[in-house]
Amino acid sequence: MGLRKDFLWGGATAANQSEGGVLEGGRGLSTIDLLPIGPDRRKVAAGELEMLDWQEDYYYPAKEAIDMYHRYVEDIEMFAEMGFKVYRMSLSWSRIFPNGNDEKPNKEGLAFYEAIFQELKKHNIQPLVTIAHFDVPVHLIKEYGGWKNRRLVDFYVRYASTVLQEFKDYVTYWLTINEINVLLHQPFVGGGIVFQEGDNKEEIQYQAAHHQLVASALVTKVAHEINPENKIGCMLAGGSHYPYTCKPEDYQEAINRDREGYFFIDVQARGKYPNYALKKFQREGLTIQMEAEDEEILAASPVDFVTFSYYCSRTVSSRPEDYAQATGNLFPSIKNDYLPSTEWGWQIDPLGLRNSLNQLYDRYQKPLFIVENGLGAVDRPDENGYVEDDYRIDYLKQHIQAFKDAVEIDGVDLLGYTTWGCIDLVAASTGQMSKRYGFIYVDRDDEGKGTLNRTRKKSFHWYKKVIASNGETL
Asked: Which SUPFAM superfamilies does this entry report, sorted A to Z (predicted)?
């Protein structure tokens, strides 16, 4: 028993990391447009440094990104040449509702995405659409404080209902909110939150989380009403936590850290708050405002399938200060001496992907979909722009084998696999172009210089064969 015959092979991008054209076609400013490259990027992302307008002396890579706004036809043709069955993409909220709360959508924004969907249809590629991928219109932050304000539920539902209705003839696979647990680690990126002095940060983050969970459930309901064929998924920044030692306290820390992310999916997939979260709020004195009908809203509309990103596993201890830390990842982790690391310090662990799939499937008993996985690396093209990226092929090969084992040996129900950054794009974590994930090389550097020309890497031809053989030829 191999992968399902209709297994969805493809690649993934996000509007804010690939489109560019940030003020074209009537689009408004969004969160990630305001993340500069350099040392202040993390502070802005964490909501610790307010930057709600572009400032001089900073370079903002999302402004132009890889200019997919003007080049999507060429890019989709290359995806089709690889044999993509599915393309995971996101819509820009502020391209469709420039302020986030406009009465009517921006027709130019809708027309742009319709043209993309028509192009995908022409090549028999199914879109898997993320409705909000690290994307909060800046007007909603200035006016309402981002997702900490209950008003955003209505604005998001209006936006989502509009695109669900508008694109119902093109899209049946939808994700409500990308890597929803990132809200706890980068609140500005995940929720448009900027902290003020004296704020109870954790309370604000969990209040924003509650609003997002209610909004996600409401949109799941709307999606099923608009088209009963619609499949709605949630999205977790995944990767299991290992205890650093056999000390029971370390094992307990691993459970606690896993739960930090599972909390969101527990609500989205099961339709109610888990007891451990309610106990946490009680124990830590966190007051989360909930409306009388919220419990019913969550219970009525659990998601149809569960998606997640997987790049690495993480290792934790009850005494992390005693050990060397792994670098580069958003989620703190101790360096695991059994695993190699990428150039950015992310630890490479294919078996961890199989373990994560089993944990998620055991927990939710819903179909799974790996919507991000890949190797961020420095690529050195030859004079023709060709990159011999055997290191990327090796990484992907091992991870594909791992998820095949999860399906064939363990019986996990897996719908598909989209590698992250199938074309080089701006890295969300660092803003760099030099941290490349793609099968397609884009001539662009960290300072925004380059022709933006696209060339096929060695991995492009390799992935084409993988897809053609439904994963039999690695």
From this structure: (Trans)glycosidases
